[in-house]
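Tip: read the tokens left to right.
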């Protein structure tokens, strides 16, 4: 939230510098993000009056003006602005003035006519971004000759406060002033709360069908307003300094009151209303054209403002285009309401919106403030636009309004939490300055919470309030005295950090993505996945919990490819969520994605693209980190997002632990990716669980090696052949390796030659040929029987 320092100091003005005030607000738990001047630096710019204007003799788009600048003589200025007119009060930069950007004003001749000074636009003075369409026209009462900086109060600062979601009470000048007043023990100087008496008896009918979501709705009919009137400069400036653009008096006044008091308001054009106003839930199929021109299909759970013809506005979010105030509006219906947080929370985001009103209602608005806000807005509207106010129509349901919270704060609990015992008088004073009603008791304080503090409901909230107002920096620093036992070090476990280091060493970079993803993306990659849907998502494309690491990795890959990064290696670790909320399984996983060339660009490297086996090699390096690589197997499988024939199920001790493969071409086309990508994900608990290293004496006796080449059907997995050979090779087998796969001349069609190297070594003696031959015969016989394998002629060696 942005607030003008001058505006804030009208409510409460401590003896602090601008930076001191910002620091104090930050130390109270309301972090100040930035402090910036409200206007760029300029000098020698005064209020002046245009007293004469004639056409430039040699230029159709230039005018020769005479201005009075308070110096006692007229000054001739050549001006090209289309809106300059006689009688206007304007900002005038005298000769010698310095404008933003170090632009110095000098005497000049424009098309042969002398010009001594410059009539300025808002953008030339740094008061708005972009280029202004014409000069800045000041109110007719602006005093000629006065410094423009003094007249507009431009020696001011905007304080931008980053509020946590629980401090919605500070989303206004009043709320922030309350905090500053409490911190400095100063009273507030608020604008007088005047009740505007009605001048006619007409009451616009209002009905609230859902008081549980809208416990209070207040409206007032104001007749005969002049929306074409100009919003006062002081109000336009305060809106600008708060980051709000001036539109028309009705909108400006409602925005001003929202910024001042924290209560969103809205004005309807009565001529566009049919019957009365009804606060109800939307009906399925209803549509509404919003003020921004967007048409939304309303959900049946959305609270709306409607009339006899249909929806007028999204309650607490945005008004409709049809019923909005325009220049020709003569009668307006001014509304203010208290919508519960439940009524508005998540609704704006579900329609792709975020407005100042929804931002406040989602965090809580003071229900006791609504009538005061209506009165304040009425007073301002009548002063600007004129009109005749009617009586206030207050529809309230006391049973549904928030009850007064009563919280007990114990002395001992407060002293324990703060590591300091504060005097009872100081604690009571702090709470009372915060607007709370305090009663002393034997063991502490009984506190009634004010209506604007939705965030205070338990004892710990009161402890926090006392701590921050007393001052966090005044609390003692003490270390807890506890006996901490050393945690056992599980040698069989390999930490995640080791896996990260391994992947980093192989050229991967770690990605950290959201745990929630776009439902459309997850549907493309995992059409049968079930995971929880968020009730209040950050945005529509982050609305379901991820059932796999694949969606986040694919999005990160896409992000890098769109920024000309053709070679990408990314990995991520984190939880995935599978099943409905009532039966949710949360699994820690680690995954990776790769695309582009196999090796980094260089004069020695080729340009071959990374493929399935490259990624499988990277994964196998991970499988060995925990020292239990033999527990892992890869077998062909079918995965909806992976290419058939280039996809494998990863097994750990016979149980599925993950997937590896090439991204399916059809999936790649749907996602708009123009390059192949390979990816895997594996359960982290299986990867990190290994075995304790154990010493085994080295044998002093020679190894014996035999090479066997089997011819098998091409669909037979090499792993099957390895497993069969390992089962028959006996206890002295020390190594088995695949060293050749061949198809072609000499091997029948549909068959392949697979060559294995087997090594034996006995720990205490030399193995003889008869023993080895028996083992080889058993291996060959088992391969023939189980896999229909044939020993290739002349292959045994």
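Filled-in amino acids:
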């Amino acid at each position: 939230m942005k607030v003008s320092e001058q505006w804030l100091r009208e409510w409460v003005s401590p003896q602090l510098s601008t930076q001191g005030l910002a620091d104090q607000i930050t130390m109270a738990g309301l972090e100040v993000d930035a402090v910036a001047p409200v206007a760029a630096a300029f000098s020698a710019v005064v209020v002046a009056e245009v007293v004469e204007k004639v056409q430039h003799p040699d230029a159709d788009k230039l005018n020769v003006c005479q201005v009075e600048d308070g110096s006692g003589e007229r000054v001739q200025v050549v001006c090209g602005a289309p809106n300059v007119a006689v009688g206007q009060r304007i900002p005038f930069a005298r000769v010698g003035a310095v404008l933003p950007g170090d632009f110095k004003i000098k005497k000049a001749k424009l098309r042969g006519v002398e010009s001594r000074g410059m009539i300025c636009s808002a953008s030339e003075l740094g008061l708005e971004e972009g280029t202004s369409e014409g000069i800045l026209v000041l109110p007719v009462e602006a005093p000629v000759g006065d410094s423009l900086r003094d007249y507009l109060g431009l020696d001011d600062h905007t304080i931008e406060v980053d509020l946590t979601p629980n401090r919605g009470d500070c989303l206004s000048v009043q709320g922030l002033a309350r905090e500053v007043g409490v911190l400095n023990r100063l009273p507030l100087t608020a604008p007088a709360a005047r009740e505007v008496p009605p001048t006619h008896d007409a009451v616009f009918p209002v009905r609230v069908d859902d008081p549980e979501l809208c416990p209070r709705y207040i409206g007032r009919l104001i007749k005969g307003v002049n929306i074409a009137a100009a919003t006062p400069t002081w109000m336009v400036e305060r809106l600008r300094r708060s980051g709000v653009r001036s539109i028309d008096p009705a909108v400006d006044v409602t925005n001003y009151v929202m910024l001042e008091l924290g209560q969103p308001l809205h004005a309807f054009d009565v001529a566009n209303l049919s019957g009365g106003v009804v606060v109800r839930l939307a009906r399925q199929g209803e549509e509404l054209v919003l003020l921004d021109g967007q048409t939304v299909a309303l959900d049946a759970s959305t609270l709306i403002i409607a009339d006899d013809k249909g929806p007028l506005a999204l309650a607490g979010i945005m008004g409709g285009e049809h019923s909005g105030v325009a220049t020709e509006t003569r009668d307006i219906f001014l509304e203010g309401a208290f919508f519960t947080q439940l009524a508005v929370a998540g609704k704006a985001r579900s329609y792709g919106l975020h407005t100042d009103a929804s931002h406040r209602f989602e965090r809580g608005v003071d229900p006791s403030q609504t009538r005061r806000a209506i009165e304040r807005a009425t007073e301002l509207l009548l002063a600007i636009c004129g009109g005749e106010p009617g009586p206030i129509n207050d529809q309230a349901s006391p049973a549904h309004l928030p009850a007064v919270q009563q919280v007990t704060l114990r002395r001992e609990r407060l002293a324990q939490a703060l590591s300091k015992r504060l005097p009872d008088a100081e604690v009571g004073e702090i709470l009372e300055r915060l607007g709370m009603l305090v009663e002393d008791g034997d063991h502490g304080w009984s506190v009634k919470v004010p209506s604007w503090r939705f965030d205070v409901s338990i004892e710990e909230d009161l402890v926090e309030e006392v701590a921050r107002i007393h001052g966090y920096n005044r609390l003692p620093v003490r270390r807890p005295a506890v006996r901490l036992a050393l945690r056992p070090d599980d040698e069989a476990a390999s930490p995640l950090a080791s896996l990260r280091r391994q992947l980093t060493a192989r050229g991967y970079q770690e990605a950290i993505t959201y745990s929630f993803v776009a439902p459309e993306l997850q549907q493309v990659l995992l059409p049968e996945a079930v995971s929880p849907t968020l009730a209040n998502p950050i945005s529509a494309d982050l609305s379901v919990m991820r059932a796999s690491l694949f969606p986040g990795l694919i999005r990160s890959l896409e992000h890098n490819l769109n920024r000309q990064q053709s070679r990408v290696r990314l990995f991520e670790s984190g939880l995935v969520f599978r099943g409905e909320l009532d039966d949710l399984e949360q699994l820690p996983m680690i995954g990776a994605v790769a695309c582009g060339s196999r090796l980094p660009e260089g004069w020695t490297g080729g340009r071959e693209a990374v493929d399935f086996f490259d990624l499988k090699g990277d994964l196998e390096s991970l499988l060995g980190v925990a020292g239990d690589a033999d527990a892992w197997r890869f077998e062909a499988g079918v995965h909806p997002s992976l290419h058939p024939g280039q996809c494998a199920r990863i097994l750990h001790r016979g149980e599925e632990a993950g997937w590896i493969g090439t991204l399916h071409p059809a999936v790649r086309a749907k996602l708009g990716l123009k390059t192949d990508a390979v990816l895997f994900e594996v359960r982290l608990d299986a990867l990190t669980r290994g075995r304790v290293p154990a010493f085994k004496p080295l044998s002093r006796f020679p190894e014996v090696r035999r090479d066997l080449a089997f011819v098998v059907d091409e669909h037979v997995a090499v792993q099957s052949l390895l497993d069969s050979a390992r089962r028959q090779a006996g206890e002295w087998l020390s190594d088995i390796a695949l060293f050749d796969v061949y198809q072609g001349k000499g091997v029948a069609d549909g068959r392949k030659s697979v060559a294995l190297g087997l090594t034996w070594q006995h720990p205490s003696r030399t193995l003889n040929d008869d023993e080895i031959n028996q083992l080889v015969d058993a291996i060959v016989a088992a391969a023939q029987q189980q896999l229909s394998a044939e020993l290739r002629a002349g292959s045994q060696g």
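The chain has a mean pLDDT of 91. The two ends are 81 Å apart (CA to CA).
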